[in-house]
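$ ./design --mode recover --in tokens.txt
reading tokens...
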């Protein structure tokens, strides 16, 4: 297992293991994240995982998960119609046009399908509002942004270096994300519905994170699943 986190995380985890007499049957490695500059943690053929700076009382980073664009899909019916040889399929999927034996150029978009739009998710945990966050999460499919307080405690949010729901909405609007998910509510509040109301004043496409609910990001939108097996779908 590889654990990514701030410098002190390793000491905290290992101290708890020792205190509880905990052992694992597998090795655990720790990778220290940079909390002042963005950092690429994982880069594969299909996705990347990186961090971006947040502003809190202690070293804190956000996480950004991004799918890489897929290759275009071959329209087999069109390929057969034009008698395109199989050896050319690879180049066509890479986005190239195709030229027949007579020199006629067939545009790539005529013989391929556009791939699904890559999905992306940004997780901004404990942080006060900073405009720079929008630059790091620009255009993501789904942004989770903490919203510890409502506007009635905006000053308290600044003092504790947290965000209000409206500030979370402001980041989502500035970043032009598709969807916003808010959470991390202060225990001072008994009714959390006001958080969604205030965020929606700035950014309407918002969900309020609810306990025992799962939020699944799809090409069509956000699928909300609860333990009661009821499903909502937004497009």
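writing sequence...
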């Amino acid at each position: 297992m590889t654990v990514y986190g701030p410098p002190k995380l390793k000491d905290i985890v290992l101290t708890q293991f020792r205190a509880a007499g905990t052992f694992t049957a597998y090795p655990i490695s720790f990778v220290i994240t940079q909390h002042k500059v963005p950092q690429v943690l994982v880069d594969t053929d299909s996705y990347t995982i990186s961090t971006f700076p947040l502003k809190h009382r202690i070293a804190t980073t956000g996480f950004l998960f991004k799918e890489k664009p897929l290759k275009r899909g071959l329209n087999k019916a069109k390929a057969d119609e034009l008698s395109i040889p199989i050896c050319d399929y690879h180049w066509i999927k890479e986005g190239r046009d195709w030229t027949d034996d007579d020199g006629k150029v067939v545009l790539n978009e005529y013989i391929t399908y556009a791939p699904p739009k890559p999905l992306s998710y940004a997780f901004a945990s404990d942080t006060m509002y900073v405009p720079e966050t929008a630059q790091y999460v620009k255009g993501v499919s789904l942004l989770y942004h903490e919203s510890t307080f409502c506007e009635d405690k905006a000053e308290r949010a600044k003092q504790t270096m947290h965000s209000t729901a409206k500030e979370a909405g402001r980041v989502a609007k500035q970043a032009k994300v598709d969807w916003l998910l808010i959470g991390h509510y202060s225990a001072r509040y008994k009714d959390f519905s006001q958080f969604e109301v205030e965020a929606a004043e700035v950014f309407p496409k918002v969900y309020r994170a609810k306990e025992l609910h799962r939020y699944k990001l799809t090409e069509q939108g956000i699928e909300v699943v609860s333990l009661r097996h009821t499903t909502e779908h937004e497009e």
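exit 0
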